[in-house]
Design goal:
Number of helices: 8
CATH topology of the largest domain: D-amino Acid Aminotransferase, Chain A, domain 1
Shape: globular
CATH superfamily of the largest domain: Aminotransferase class 4, branched-chain amino acid transferase, N-terminal domain
CATH class of the largest domain: Alpha Beta
Number of domains: 2
Structural class: alpha+beta
CATH architecture of the largest domain: 2-Layer Sandwich
Strand content: 25-35%
Amino acid sequence: MASRFILRNPCTSSLKNSRYFCVAAFNASYKDSFYHKDLSITKVDTPKSYPPKDQLLFGHNFTDHMLEAKWTKENGWEKPKIVPFHNLTIHPASGVLHYAIECFEGAKAYKGKDGKVRMFRLDANMRRMNKSTASISLPTFDVEEAVKCITDLVKLESNAIPEGFGYSLYLRPTVIATEPKLSIRENSSALFYTICSPCGPYFPTGFKAVRLFADTEHVRAWPGGTGDNKLGSNYDGGMYLTKLANQKGYQQILWLFGEEHNITEAGSMNAFIYWTNEEGVLELITPRLDGTILPGVTRDSILSMCRKWGEFQVTEGSITMKQLAKASKEGRLHEVFGAGTGCIISPVKEIGYLGSNIPVPLDPNDPTSESGPLSRRIYEELMAIQYGDIPHEWTTILE
């Protein structure tokens, strides 16, 4: 039976001291910050041109400017500045190079049919970033001030945002350790920066279903580890394994954990399963935030949206590969998909597991469809919110 969980307010629960249960504690604990009122802007002399939007690949092109703020333990944050895009100059002994002391975020800005630019839940990304920085002893900052500074960067680069459904300006806020010492300890200097990338759809082939390889030998994260933070070190371990999965004809790894092969994440995405559970209830289930799962902003948006619909049970719990395989055989498995900022939704059509392939239904009414009805509906509604077709509190219009 799939487990059911009602998550308590983490900061009032018995687990309030656990770093992965109390994001709010980190957001209120910063000692100093950089401030928007101190922001300076230096513009490029000659703006660059970009490839035609149908030639834009995700994360391949970058805008004219970047935001940066330096920090030292002795003096705190320096004044933030927007400057022409440039290569970083750091000491060869910097902690980011030797001990992977860094974290990052991924957010997007969109240009709607009305020509207005909208940011989608950037505040949520920056709250999560504060949690990540604290987890590796990098400096935190005031979330609202960071959002204001990044917003000014996006305003400056608004002409670089391609118009049209599926196109956006990808934002990559990053914090890296820069202390020039080979020492495994808290770093005394760091750099916060944000770069922007005009991009097209995450998958060049379009909105198409993928095949996942359920890895029973390796794990992405473990209890008490760092899997719930957006650290580069949580991604590098999957590079070679994903390459092996690609050679077998699968696009991504479906990460499992424990003897029961509990489903955790799908590649670099949160995993969702839409099924009729063993109690006969129509349910959308995603792994609960137990410290091994990244608290995705898209994940949270999907849960909130589907709960508001009130058409099926929405659960943060656990489900094993055995349960999923049994549901598929019995016709109770309706859809599987991944979700994240880059792809929004990635439908799944097949899962390789223990030497066999588990088929995942797509649209029973359209044999040519590359997604199931629910994942398509979620995708279209989220995109409509992001582009301003549906007014929503999650979007901020930049004047």
